[in-house]
Amino acid sequence: MIRRPSQPRERGIPEATVARLPLYLRALNGMAERGLATVSSEDLAAAAGVNSAKLRKDLSHLGSYGTRGVGYDVEYLIYQISRELGLTQDWAVAIVGVGNLGRALANYGGFVSRGFRVAALLDADPEVVGDHIAGLNVEHIDELETVIRLRGVSIVVLATPAAAAQQVADRVVAAGVTSILNFAPVVLSVPEGVDIRKVDLSIELQILAFHEQRKMDRMTGGPAMADEWPEAVDL
Amino acid sequence: MIRRPSQPRERGIPEATVARLPLYLRALNGMAERGLATVSSEDLAAAAGVNSAKLRKDLSHLGSYGTRGVGYDVEYLIYQISRELGLTQDWAVAIVGVGNLGRALANYGGFVSRGFRVAALLDADPEVVGDHIAGLNVEHIDELETVIRLRGVSIVVLATPAAAAQQVADRVVAAGVTSILNFAPVVLSVPEGVDIRKVDLSIELQILAFHEQRKMDRMTGGPAMADEWPEAVDL
């Protein structure tokens, strides 16, 4: 297999647009659940937290322009974005690390409904290997390379402790996988051409904190924050 | 307490900027971990997946302009963003639903390091109540209102099954909490003035799938996707 990671993308969708497509998809799925058939660019933009001009520009990259006075067809736009993101394919995913987070991810309904099929669960702990979770038996990490090859795993989810993550990532990459989703609280180094994304479960909590702070400011009559730069900030 | 949820914000930071601040913070924390002292707007923008003009505009809302030829001081920018997001305060968080996901969240180091202190774990299952997790005893959901009041809980994380989430959300709101982070796979309705954010753990996986699809296209010589709109899309 010849990899040409530096080759420009065939279709020029900006990276920032790619990052927003899942947000539109999440908003659209919520609308579909509530039975909405069409949505205006203003309403969809508001639900996704962007301005409507940007939304229209993003969707124009998909060849989706909506209908004047009607807006976008919710189901069709879900299909277009899903296709663009590759979610109409079936992606075999392996989850490495079957602690609480790995188990939660294995049982997470939102993966299957987006085209992600959990094809393997792997762990190094003999106490955990053999456990039956979400229809799968947990396999030993020694089987990693075999499992990746035989089941066509194209994305690996790392839910190991921080100390084990880099070693597993190295093996995953050596086995030919070029997409890693990292839940372990550590920055991993991978060769060029490997896409790695780090999940920070506190991101949404941070946005809530911003609004909560503003609500408290309003109740107390103004910000109660120090303006000085403290000697040490523990982050 | 008088709540004025419709009052305009004292400082006019656009909502879209607020949503990007945690992304900058995540990128900056990664840089700080790697020992970087300063960062250019171009590098920070690339790490956060936005364009650098937007980054500079976002940061200008915080009064942060960097230094020509040097860039931004990483630690100071972490402090400024953290302060703006309210992360230099201590937020008491209650996690409702102590299954695998609730346990994983209770043990998640990324909360504490961002100013979120898990002050309570609650569950309805008598088998789970009394379990000792991350330094806390799981309490019965009947204690929800008491716990919120006595421990000053300002943000509730819902990690219950979908069927229980709305009922818990109603009680949380009645107890005066106006910030809810929802991991349950269901759309909740809450009164105006309550901020609710839904976490979709598959968002980052979707971005990976997009790139994986592109890599496969390059190897096979072009997109293998159907252009037709199929009869049924199961999302």
Question: What distinguishing features does this structure have?
Answer:
disordered C terminus; disordered N terminus; two-stranded antiparallel ribbon; Arc Repressor Mutant, subunit A; 9 helices; homodimer; seven-stranded mixed beta sheet; Rossmann fold; 235 residues; alpha/beta; 41% helix
Descriptive overview:
In chain A, the strands form 2 sheets. Chain A has a 7-stranded mixed β-sheet with strand order 5-6-4-3-7-8-9, sandwiched between helices. Chain A has a two-stranded antiparallel sheet with strand order 1-2. The radius of gyration of chain A is 21 Å and the shape is globular. The first copy, chain A, has helices at residues 15-33, 41-48, 52-60, 74-85, 100-106, 109-112, 144-150, 162-174, 203-220; strands at 38-39, 72-73, 91-96, 116-123, 132-133, 136-140, 155-158, 179-182, 195-198. In chain A, 41% of the residues are buried. Chain A is an alpha/beta fold and 235 residues long. In chain A, helix 1 packs antiparallel against helix 4. Chain A has 2 domains: 15-85, Winged helix-like DNA-binding domain superfamily/Winged helix DNA-binding domain (Arc Repressor Mutant, subunit A), CATH 1.10.10; 91-198, NAD(P)-binding Rossmann-like Domain (Rossmann fold). In chain A, strand 5 and strand 6 (136-140) form a beta hairpin.
